[in-house]
Amino acid sequence: LQNVNIDTEFLDAAVVGSAGGSLTMSAGIRFNLPVGYRPVDWFAVEFAPGIIWNKMSSYNLQFSGTIDGDPESATLPLDVQGGYFQVPLVVNFIFKIPTKSPWVPYIGGGIGASYTYMNWTQLSYGGISEDYSNVDGSCWSLAYQAIAGWDYKITDKVSLSLKYIFLGTGNQNFGGSFQDVDTQGSYSQNVMLNCTINF
């Protein structure tokens, strides 16, 4: 998170200033439902909507300002409870490497947009915690991804693959409770089992 302006009551202290830092999430779940067209054996274009959920983990808060009127500049490792949801809507370009076996490696990339929703339910630091309700916000941002995988052709119509996806977003300007929160983007890495059915 970058350049967050703060003027609030936080963990029983009056906090005024600006903050940045980084948010981290625990491992989560991703589902994709791609639909595409393959004009030749080695190339395909697909529209790949999906949904990703991660549990919030920590916020490495970098703060500069005052706490209860006293000047402070510190880095505070906060524990965060909540959820981070993404709906990437990306067009992928897939390039397959022809082989003479059922195993077919591929690489690719995509670009599109992502809808992100974030909510916080609790913040904790130094044994002190504070619960929150209705603290959430959402935004749209640029999305891009890199893809690599390995297909195994079961039949001419059906294949299974193990797929790796790196997903990144552009700057995020949240609304709602996080209307003063801007980020320089989020990044996630996904390992997925993929089933392809050709018509």
Model description:
The protein is mainly β and 199 residues long. It has one domain: Porin, CATH 2.40.160. It has strands at 4-10, 13-25, 29-32, 35-40, 43-67, 70-96, 103-125, 128-153, 158-169, 172-173, 182-183, 187-197. The strands form two sheets. Strands 1, 2, 3, 4, 5, 6, 7, 8, 9 and 12 form a ten-stranded antiparallel beta sheet that branches. It is elongated and about 70 Å long. The model has no long low-confidence stretch (mean pLDDT 89).
Secondary structure elements and pairings:
Blueprint: E1 4-10, E2 13-25, E3 29-32, E4 35-40, E5 43-67, E6 70-96, E7 103-125, E8 128-153, E9 158-169, E10 172-173, E11 182-183, E12 187-197
Antiparallel strand pairs: 1-2, 2-5, 3-5, 4-5, 5-6, 6-7, 7-8, 8-9, 9-12, 10-11
The helical percent reads under 10%
Annotated CATH topology: Porin
Structural class: mainly beta
CATH architecture: Beta Barrel
End-to-end distance: 45 Å
The total tally of domains equals 1
Q: What global shape is seen?
A: elongated
Elements, N to C (H/E)? EEEEEEEEEEEE
Biggest β-sheet strands, sense, barrel: 10 strands, antiparallel
Number of helices, where a helix is a run of at least 4 consecutive DSSP H or I residues: 0
Q: Can you tell me the CATH class?
A: Mainly Beta
**Rounded Rg:** 21 Å
Unreliable residue stretches? none
Can you give the mean pLDDT? 89
Strand content: over 45%
